[in-house]
Design a protein that fits this description.
binds manganese (II) ion; binds guanosine-5'-diphosphate; seven-stranded antiparallel sheet; six-stranded mixed sheet; alpha+beta; 14 helices
């Protein structure tokens, strides 16, 4: 069994990775390794809508895309105090900074006019936090919510934990702050409950977590009830993570989810159509969206060898072997399963649109994929795009002889490779020659 510290550290790391690049592969570039992370990630206001639909307590709120809308929302809320929150897919907003000069992505005020003024300095500007790239992320929407007094902030997350093969609830009475710091400095303040996915959450587990979080008396039952509701939500919507920080308590004796971050298992898209339809993709790179239009998955990296592969496993193997041979991948494009010739053409167009690309390595293993279709796509793309960079091709599997004939008789300067190692060596050499 892993220790609570290990769990907490892992949870923290997982949360951080998911927060950093929600729909991308996170790149551990020093090691040359790639970790697939392609989970749908919703904005706070979307997560809170799901929560409130499932009986989880959140504040009343509106969403605004302009300062005027924000002002109107603040008036309509008619609240004693208002909290204005920039909506981006990263945490640490409270301590973030906008390139408009405004400090803080979360503001409290009693005056609706101030909401309008602050929103003016948020919408359309980039917000940089500890979890975003340096230049920040553009804010398109703000959440205007009824502010509540907070007497205590705790941390609560439910996540799928690989080392337990199932869900784990992680909590700490020390919330609001960076949970990784708590895990590092006060590991004894991190509590966890492993849930048996078949038996579900037990009352005793919810109560114990509530107690560990420091909820006393009637608040304990309320918190336990909220935890159970969050767990049911987690299961029902196929989440990989539900994180609430702060999971707080008000002086009036209410347990409230003040922040929300939910990630989803992309494999469940077929049965969570309504949720996946909420994905606005506005924080994706334009090239990722372009790739998605053709059912391709594009991942940008920082080297100079473009990789064209089928399957995430082969993508990682290809990147590894390029690194091992002293090269660096510029990106990779995953073709997936059923392939059309036109997709291959689009793939080449995308790969070569990146000015960093100095060579292209095609590594396709044709199990379901027919290699001849790939070969035809490649020759067509080479001709029509007037390919200027060296192209190394390794094809293997179904119809490979036919495919090799097509490439050879094309008369195009395509370097064939007999296996992955050979392909990587040739691609790295072609870049080194320049
Ligand atoms: P994050 O910084 O991106 O995690 O954004 P949060 O939603 O967690 O907000 C940051 C901090 O603002 C929280 O930890 C709270 O301390 C504070 N905050 C957020 N909402 C409220 C509210 O309704 N009332 C009060 N008093 N503080 C709030
Ligand atoms: Mn938070």
């Amino acid at each position: 069994m892993a220790s609570p510290v290990a769990i907490a550290a892992q949870a923290g790391k997982l949360l951080r990775e998911q927060a950093l690049r929600p729909r991308l592969l996170a790149v551990r570039s020093q090691a040359g390794h790639l970790t697939p992370r392609r989970w749908l990630n919703l904005q706070e206001y979307q997560s809170k809508k799901l929560m409130s639909e499932h009986g989880v307590r959140v504040q009343r709120f509106f969403v605004a895309s302009t300062a005027k809308e924000a002002l109107e929302a603040a008036k309509r809320l008619n609240a004693k105090e208002i909290v204005l929150k920039a909506q981006i897919l990263a945490g640490g907003r409270g301590k973030g900074v906008f390139n408009s000069g405004l400090k803080g992505g979360v503001h409290l005020t009693k005056d609706p006019k101030v909401v309008g003024q602050l929103a003016q300095q948020m919408i359309g500007y980039n917000l940089a936090t500890k979890q975003t790239p340096k230049e920040g992320v553009k804010v398109n929407k703000v959440m205007v919510a009824e502010a509540l007094d907070i007497s205590r902030e705790t941390y609560l997350a439910i996540l799928m934990d690989r080392s337990y093969n199932g869900p784990v609830i992680v909590g700490s009475p020390q919330g609001g702050v960076d949970i990784e710091e708590v895990a590092a400095n006060n590991p004894e303040l991190i509590f966890k409950e492993q849930i048996d996915i078949f038996e579900g959450i037990k009352d005793s587990q919810a109560q114990r977590m509530a107690e560990n979080l420091g909820f006393l008396g009637p608040l304990k039952h309320q918190a336990a009830d909220q935890i159970k509701k969050l767990y049911h939500l987690f299961l029902k919507i196929d989440a990989t993570q539900v994180e609430v920080n702060p999971f707080g308590e008000t002086p009036e004796g209410q347990v409230v989810c003040f922040d929300a971050k939910i990630n989803f298992d992309d494999n469940a898209e077929f049965r969570q159509k309504d949720i996946f339809a909420m994905d606005d993709k506005s924080e994706n790179e334009p090239i990722e969206n372009e790739a998605a239009r053709y059912d391709l998955k594009y991942i940008g990296l920082d080297g100079n060898i473009a990789c064209f592969v089928n399957g995430a496993g082969l993508a990682m193997a290809t990147c590894d072997i390029i690194f091992l041979n002293g090269g660096r991948p510029a990106n990779f494009l995953d073709l997936g399963g059923g392939v059309k010739e036109s997709q291959v053409y689009q793939a080449f167009k995308l790969l070569t649109s990146d000015p960093k690309v100095e060579a292209i390595l095609v590594n396709i293993f044709g199990g379901i994929v027919n290699c001849a279709i790939i070969a035809n796509g490649i020759t067509k793309a080479c001709r029509e795009l007037e390919l200027k960079v060296p192209l190394v091709v390794r094809l293997e599997g179904t119809n490979v002889q036919e495919a090799q004939k097509i490439l050879k008789s094309s008369g195009l300067p395509i370097t064939p490779a007999k296996d992955l190692e050979d392909a990587a060596k040739k691609a790295v050499a072609s870049v080194a020659k320049k």
